[in-house]
Amino acid sequence: MNSSRRLLTVLGLAVTVVVGSGISASASFSDTAALPTVTLDTLTVQPPTQVEALLVSCMPAEDTVVVEWQYSGSRGVSGYHVRVHLSDGSSSVVAKVGASTKEVLVTLDAATLASSPAFTVTTLTSYGWTARSVGYEGPKC
Predict the structure, then answer these.
(1) pLDDT tens sequence across 33-83
(2) DSSP states of 2-70 as a string?
(3) How many helices (H) and strands (E) does the chain have?
(4) What residues does 65 pair with on adjacent strands?
(5) Is the whole-model pTM more than 0.85?
(6) Would you identify the CATH topology of the domain 49-137?
(7) Given this model, what pLDDT does residue 44 score?
(8) Residue 54: how many other CB atoms lie within 10 Å
(9) Structural domain boundaries of the chain?
């Protein structure tokens, strides 16, 4: 009797599997959710303002200029680069200073100062964005 029960159980399971596999499954899902309103602000880095270059000394071989500016109003300012722009189109950074500095002494050779260089100051930020000031024409000896 045990073996006939086992046989009937196995046959019943086999019939269930065969019959069940012929029935197609179907499911659907529908739901809605309200999303919060998202706003994006654009960040603008402010360049330094009121950039000026004033002659400190005019020597035969070297000239000293002080470049001054007003701080950038942007958040995260980490420092400033002072750049000299020459009349031939070239430029180079002549000073790298921290965020609390607003003037720097720059020594140039007489030929550079005679070529009417312009100076710009670039705001550097902790998040990698920068902004360059308007150029200011340097003094002449």
Answers:
(1) 888 888 766 678 999 999 999 988 888 778 889 999 999 999 999 999 999
(2) HHHHHHHHHHHHHHHHHHHHTSPP--------PPPP-------PPPPEEEEEEEEEE-SSEEEEEEEEE
(3) 2, 8
(4) 55, 106
(5) no
(6) Immunoglobulin-like (2.60.40)
(7) 87
(8) 12
(9) 49-137
